[in-house]
Amino acid sequence: MDHESSGRTSRRRRAPRGETAAKRDVNYRDLRNPFPVMAIFSEDRIAAIHEAALTMLQDLGIKVLLPQAREIFRRGGAKVDEASEMVFIGREIVETALASAPRSIRCRAGARDRDVTLELGRLVFQPGAGAPHATDLERGRRPGRACDFRELVQLTQHFDVLHMVPPLIEPQDVVANLRHFFTMEAQLTLSDKLPFIFSRGTPQVLDGFEMLRDFRGLSDAAFQAESWCYTIINTNSPRQIDIPMAQGLIDFARFGQVSIVTPFTLMGAMAPVTVAGAMTLSHAEALAAIALTQLVNPGAPVCYGTFTSNVAMKSGAPAFGTPEHFKASLAAGQLARFIGLPWRCASGSAANINDAQAAHETQFALWGCLLAGATVVIHSAGWLEGGLTVSYEKLITDLEALQMVAELCAETPAGEAEIALDAIRDVGPGGHFFGAAHTMARYQTAFYEPLVADWSNFGTWTERGGLDASQRATKVWRDVLEDGAPPALDPVRVSALSDFIRKRTAEGGAPPES
């Protein structure tokens, strides 16, 4: 074929009849952050923030509401004032804790290729979590229900770029004393990814551990030898750890399971109005919680974390995806690297619907996490209203961005074949590469295929109904729920799980502790 006729080759080639189109070989399950980290403060200012946090813990103290936790601190050398419930944690206690906390945590999922490693440089995504409401274009905004929780677990399972199952939404149609049975059963039977257990008191936590241990076919020793689940611990800023959170730190440390410590601080509300001040407070609270885990069990798996943004000073409403949110993430990354621990950051949006505001706030916050070097990025997909709602459509449209980030984590080869000098030689000036042999050998797998984006021209898009991104996203999640299959399950273990839940339900379950 001459160069001119090559330049007129049809733009579209179909696979010959009877042949299956090639699929791209992608791996979104094991990601490493490809971006250089960015600093907001100089190294000496990060050291100053760390020093100020240590001074705060030693001189100002932190209020710990759980008597057992105060006793653990006291036996570890901290000064405790029982009347005020204040604990004053010396520098040496924190330094010893940071020395024993692991730098790398291997978390065991239901399948070995779903295992997650938490360490600096890794990149793990979770969807939006902890919302009391769910919403989608077909059923509208509603209090979270059991069916919503199950559907969101299925969607989390389907997309490889989501690595851990978070608490998603609160299934409010399941009574509180039985809710932990329901959420664990849904995670174990609908997903083989790393599950989450709420820290809402020892009875519920131990139920969760027992269900998970038996479903995975583990002995007590094997369960405690590795991390099979995780929880998220939020301090009550400023300078307070409540009873369920303190108990959760103790229980998870004692059984060798992962605590992700996350002070939730909003500048101008429960934290100083400045980025440096808010991060000093957040850092101190995280260090106190980390110290508790290591006093319980030196070497217990624990992640540093923060979720720091600002409020709208005219209304007091939380804001996310702001420049201050971005800067706080960068500072948290510097502090995490300063102490050497894997850490958790967060994206999110204060928008009320899945619109342009929701997209740009979530992505701006996401870039803050990425450039800060976050290990775990929570609320990376689906989060609306500052955490009051998880949107099915936003989950899908946000996943487009996460998958594109995951593509950037893969190596981009530049060998002789990729440099493509022969292909450039074969195509004459003014020609095109649509029909070139180099293109034909690669076109089916060369580029990322969009999940929800529509790259058709205006006329074609109009003929197809002129659907916007949210409307297209509805079809995506609907198709996943209709076609998706759960992971292969052992019927004996499923039956045993049902028997355990039935027995514990008859016994009254376990009310959450407050």
**Shape descriptor:** globular
Rg to the nearest angstrom?
Answer: 25 Å
What ranges have pLDDT less than 50 throughout 5 or more consecutive residues?
A: 1-18
Structurally, the number of domains stands at 1
Helix fraction, binned, reads 40-55%
Q: Give the C-level CATH assignment.
A: Alpha Beta
Helical/strand content category: alpha/beta
Tell me, rounded to a whole number, the average pLDDT: 94
Number of helices: 19
In whole angstroms, the N-to-C terminal distance is: 77 Å
Biggest sheet character: 7 strands, mixed
According to CATH, the homologous superfamily is Trimethylamine methyltransferase-like
Spatial strand sequence of the major β-sheet: 1-7-18-17-14-12-10
Would you tell me which CATH topology applies?
TIM Barrel
Query: Based on the structure given, which CATH architecture is correct?
Result: Alpha-Beta Barrel
Strand count: 20
Strand content: 5-15%
